[in-house]
Amino acid sequence: MARLDLNKYQTHLVLGLIIAFTLFGLWIRALPASTIVTDAGVNLLGNDPWYHVRQVEHLLENFPRYAWFDPMTHFPDGEVVYWGPLFNYIIAGLCILFGAGTRPEIMYISCWVPALMGAAMVPIMYLIGAAIADRKTGVLAAGFITVVGGTYFYRSIFGFVDHHIGEVLFGTIFVLAYIAALAYSRRHPVDLRSTETLMMPGALALLAGFAYFLGILVMPTMALYALIVAVFTLIQFLWDFHAGRSSDYLLVLNAGVFAVAILGIFALGIPHASLSIAQYSIMHVYIYLLALAGTIGLYTLGIVLKGRAAYFYPASVAGIAVVGTAAVALAVPDFYTYLVGNFVSFFGSEAITLTVQEAQPWSYDHAWRAFHWSLPLMAGGFVALVYRSWREESPALVFGLVWSGVMLVSTIAKVRYEYYLAANVALLAAVFIGFVLNAGWKDVRALISARTAPKSVPDAPPADARQKPSKKERKSKKQQKAVGRKGPDHLRVAAVAVVAVLGVLFVAFSLTTAVALASSPGLGGIDSQWREALDWFGENTPDPGIDYYGFYEREAFDYPPGAYGVMSWWDYGHWITFVSQRIPNSNPFQRGVAGPTGSAAYFMSPTEEAANAILDDRGSRYVITDFLMANPGSKFWAMATWANSTAGTAPYLDRFLTASPTDPGTYNAVSLNTQEYYETMVARLHIYDGSMAEPDSVWYIEYRDAAAARTSLPVITRAQQMNASAAADAAAAYNKNAPAGQHATIVSNTVYQPLEPVPALQHYRLVFESSRNVLSGSGQDAPDIRYVKIFEYVPGARISGEGIIELPLVTSTGREFTYRQESVNGEFVVPYATSGGPESVTAKGPYRIAGTTMVFEVSEEDIQQGRTIR
C-alpha cells in the first residue's frame, strides 16, 4: 500500500490551518451580535466604544478631517483627543465602502472591526512563530491566539469598538517586521562599507519603521515598543561585542525605524503642546532621537573599544549612562523631570487611578483567570527562549525574549497591558511546546514503533547452512544488539506528554471561557434604565448650542452663552454625549473627576453650599445619578477615593468583625454606614430625592478595638437595633465609663436610614426617574428608589415662614413622594413649581407648611427667576 507523504503537502496543510483558525476566531468573536444588535442599532459594550462611534460619525461628516478637539464632552473645557486617527479611519473607510450612513448602520459596521482585527492576529502570529522557530511553532501560536482569553479576547469581540485591539495588532505587526529584518541581517551580514549589503536591510528597516508609525497612528503608547527596541539594542550590542561580531545591522535597523517614526510624528503635525509621552507631543521626537543617539553611541563605543577586554564595553556603557543621566538632570532639569515623570506614570499607579480597573496592578488571581494553564507554558517558553538565544546567538530570539519580558513587566504594573501580553502568551506557549516536541518527538515515535511493531520469529536456516560464525561476525552482532536495546528516552516522552496535556487544557479552558463570554446576554453596554433616562434627557432638555457634528479648533473655540454641563460620574460621560447629545462635565478618560471642582468632590460634598459652588464653577445645569453611585458597596467607593485618596471611604463607612452566626469561632467583616454617608450629595439626591430625611431605627453597637482584640478590625461584642435618639444616648452613656479598648457607637446597615436628621436640598428638583425600583422585594419598610434619576439645578423660589414645608409630588412612573424642607432663618427656598414645571414630575397640590393652613402656589417662572413668594 502506498504511504502518504505529508511533507509533500506541508505548505497546503499549514495554509489550510491558518485559514481555519482565522475563520474560527472571527466566528467566536462575532457571537455577541446575536444578543446586542437591534433595529435601533447596537448596544455597544463598555464605555469607550460609544465615544469611538461618536468619533466615526463625526469623521464621516467631516471626512477626511480628524478632530483633535471635541467640545461635546468635559464641559466647560472640552476634550483634547489623545489617541490617533487610524482605528477610526479604518472604520470610516469601511462605512464608506459599504454605504453605511445611518446611525444603526455605522454602529453595525464599527462593531465588526475589532473582531476582524482579532482574526487578523492569527496569520501575524504564525509568521512570528515561524520566524523565530519553525512552522510547527507558528501554527501553534496561530491556534493559541485564536482562543487566548483575558481582556484580549473581550477587547477583540464584536461590539467592543475601541482601539485596544488595534494597538495589539499594529504593535505585533511591528514586531514581525523588526524580527524579519533581524533574521535577514543574520543570513546576509551587513557591512556599512558595502552598498550592496545595505539595500535590503535598509528597505526592511524602513518597512519596520512604517509599521511602527502605523502603531503610533493608533495610540501614543506605541512608545512602549520603542522601549523594547532600546532594551534589546543594549543587550544585543553587549552580546555582539563579547562575541566579536559586527553590529552594523543594528545601526541600520534602528536608524531606519526611528527616522521614519520622527518623520511620521512631524507629518502628523504634533497636535498636542504638552511634553507627555501619552500624547502626540514633541516628547516623542525627543525619545526617538535619544534612542537613535543611543544606538549610534553604542555602535561608536564598540568601534573605539574593539580589541579590548570584554569587560571594557559594559563598564564603559554603565559609566557613560550614569554620567549622562547626571548631566541631563543638571543641564536640563525640566526635561529630565518630564522624562522620569513619564516613565513613572507609564508603569506606576496612584490610589485614585487604582479605582480604574485597567490601571490596577496584575494579581495572580487575575492572571490565572485570564490565562490559566498557559501560564506554566509561558514560563517554559521564557526558559526555552533563553536557552535557544544562548545556544544559537540569534538576535531575533533575543528580541522575542525582550519583547515578552517588557510586556510581562508592564502587565504586572498595570493590568491594562494584559491584552498586549496575550500575543506573548500565545507565542511563548507555542515556543515551549515546539521546543519540547523537537527534543522528544523521536523518542515518542520510537516508543510507538516499539509497541506496535509485530513480533516475528525468523525461519531457521537449513541444516547444511548452519555454521559457526567467525569471531568478527560475533562481535558485529553484539554491537547491533546493543544498539537495538537502546530504547526511547522516557523522560523526554513524559515531557512531551505533559506539554501536550497543558496545551490541550489551555485551548479547552480558553475556548470554553471565550464562547461563554461571547454568548453571554449580559456582556455590558448601556443598562436599559440608563437608556430610558438618556433618551428622555436628550428629548426634554434645552439644546446646549453645540453642533454635534461640527468641526471645532481648540484655540478658536468658545462655548455659546446657552451651553451647560451635565454632572454625573465619569463612567457615564460617553453615554450622555452619544445618546443624549449633551455635554458631561466628566468622562471615562477620567477628565473632570479629580480636584476641588471635579465630579468626585461634588458627589462627596457634605454641604449643599459646597456642591453648588462646584456646579457654578463647572457651568452644570443637570445632575444624573444612579443607585450604583449611591451604593457604598459599588461606585461610591471609587468616588470617595477620587475625592480623598488618603481617607477613601473611612469617613462614610465603619468596618468591623462580627461573629459568624453559623460558626461563632470565625468572624465576618461588615461595613456599616456612618452619618457622613447620608450627608453626601449623592445620597441626598438619589436616596432622598433632595428631601429632608429623619432618623428612625438604627443599630447601637459595642465593640473592642482591633489592638485590644488582636484582630485586623474592631470586633463587635454587642449589637441592638434601637430608636435613633435612644441609641445615641446609650452610646454616649457607655463611652463615659467604657473599659479600656472598648467603645460604643451608632451605625446603619441600609442606605435609607440616617442616624441624624438630613436637611433638604433647596436648589435641586427631580425631573426624571427610570422605571425600576432597585429595592423591590426588600421588604415592606424599604422605600421605592429608582435606578436612574435626573435632577435639575435651579435658583429656587423663596417663601417666608417657620417650620416644615411640604409638597406632594408624583413622577411619570406613578411613584408618589413628598418633598419636605425645614425653614432656615425664617425662610424656605423651594425647587419645585406647583404649575408650569416639567411634566415628568408634577405637584399634586400647593406647598403647605405642616401643622398650619398656610399654602403657597409657585410658578415655573418663580423657580427660574429666584423670586420671593408673598
Automatic annotation (TrEMBL):
It is found in: Endomembrane system. Keywords: Glycosyltransferase, Magnesium, Manganese, Membrane, Metal-binding, Transferase, Transmembrane, Transmembrane helix. Residues 468-484 have a biased composition (Basic residues). Pathway: Protein modification; protein glycosylation. Its main location: membrane. Residues 454-486 are annotated as: Disordered. Residues 796-869 form the Archaeal glycosylation protein B peripheral domain. Residues 46-379 form the Oligosaccharyl transferase STT3 N-terminal domain. The chain crosses the membrane at residues 12-31, 80-100, 106-127, 139-158, 164-185, 197-216, 251-273, 285-305, 312-332, 370-387, 394-413, 419-441, 493-518. It is a multi-pass membrane protein. Residues 527-629 form the AglB-like core domain. GO terms for cellular component: endomembrane system; membrane. Its cofactor is Mg(2+); Mn(2+). InterPro entries: AglB-like_core, AglB_P1, Oligo_trans_STT3, OlisacTrfase_arch, STT3_N. One of its GO terms (molecular function) is oligosaccharyl transferase activity. Belongs to the STT3 family. This is Oligosaccharyl transferase. The lineage of its organism: unclassified sequences, metagenomes, ecological metagenomes.
